[in-house]
Every structure is written in structure tokens, then in C-alpha cells.
Amino acid sequence: MRDIDVRKIEKTGVHPLDEVFLRTLPPSPDFDFDHNKRVIEQTIKDTQAMIRQKGRESKEGINERAWAASHYLRNIQQGKGTRNVEQYFGKNFLLYLKGKDILNQIKEQLTANGNTSRNQDETFRGAVK
Question: What is the pLDDT of residue 76?
């Protein structure tokens, strides 16, 4: 990795890798470095919050599926119930578990495609109805 001169970044406010872009286009006269810095900081903050939220949602989903699988396997081990998964859980609960997984995949695709609005859940619910 290249050594980056931190003093140069502090002095100019421009990362050395970004200097190429500054040389190709003339700087805008109304560009506000402070506003740009605030936007970048807010974007990083929002992204970190979204990553934490997705982690919590993912963990909840994994915990729910792990709980269901462990109960099923424990009952098989103890000789209780049936080996048929659909009979054990019921068709509706299996569809529920699979449906939650599909909804999470669709939400991730919406986010990846640029739909990062705060109303994404409401938009998504309206499309599913």
C-alpha cells in the first residue's frame, strides 16, 4: 500500500487519490468543503446505523430458524413426533420461515439498487399486498 502524506491531506483537504479528479475538472466556484464534509460524515453515520440494523435483523432470523431446527432435531433424537418436516412444523410455519428469508433478500436487493429511502419498509409492504 502506498504511503499517504497525512499532512498534505490536512493542508489541502484532498486525498492524494482524489487529486486526479481535481485536475480533470475545474473546481466549482460554489463548492462548499464544509457542506461536503457534513454530507460525507452523515452518510457514514447512516450507513453504520443501517449495517447495525441489518445485523440485528439477520441475527433475529437466524435465531428463529436455529430454534425451530433444534427443536425438530431434538424431537427426532428423542423419538418423538415425525421425521417429515412439513408435518412437524406445519405447512404455514415452513412458508413463514421461507417467506421471511425471501423478504430479507428482496430488501437487500432494493438497497443495493439504490432504494435507500427511509420509507423503504412502507414501500415494500405496499408492493407485497
Answer: 78
Size of the chain, expressed as the number of residues it contains:
129
Residues 28-85 pLDDT 10s: 788 888 898 999 999 999 999 999 988 888 888 778 778 887 877 787 778 777 777 7
- C-alpha grid cell for residue 7? 499532512
Place of cell 466556484: 29
DSSP string, 9-55: HHHHS--GGGHHHHHHSPPPTT--HHHHHHHHHHHHHHHHHHHHHHH
Cα separation, 88 vs 70, whole angstroms: 12
d(CA 75, CA 82): 8
Amino acid at 119: N
d(CA 30, CA 33): 10
Task: State which H helix or E strand residue 22 sits in.
Answer: helix 19-24
Amino acid 4: pLDDT? 65
Q: How far apart are CA 33 and CA 36, in angstroms?
A: 5
Q: Is 94 exposed, middle or buried (0-12, 13-18, 19+ CB in 10 A)?
A: middle
Q: What does the alpha-carbon distance between residue 17 and residue 6 come to, in Å, rounded to a whole number? A: 12
